[in-house]
Specification:
mainly alpha, 0% strand, 29% helix
């Protein structure tokens, strides 16, 4: 069974990367994939923040509006 180990590191002079972790067993074969990150700040917003900013995401503005809506709904069932 393969084990995946993810390590964040800084590229050393000469383009070298050093990885030291207990999960690496001497003598075992390993495949190394390097993802080079941009130095630009990540300005992506979280999905919850995006949804919260959408118009109409909140039907009621306070508890009184919720109570009034619930009363109207119950009254419509009985009527």
């Amino acid at each position: 069974m393969a084990t995946e180990v993810r390590v964040k590191t800084i590229v050393l002079p000469g383009g070298k990367i050093e990885i030291s972790t207990p999960e690496l067993i001497p003598g075992k074969h390993a495949t190394v994939v390097v993802t080079i990150e941009d130095n630009e700040p990540d300005d992506q917003r979280h999905v919850i923040d995006i949804l919260a900013a959408l118009p109409g995401h909140q039907i009621f503005h306070n508890i009184e509006e919720v109570d009034a809506y619930m009363r109207e709904e119950r009254d419509s069932w009985e009527g």
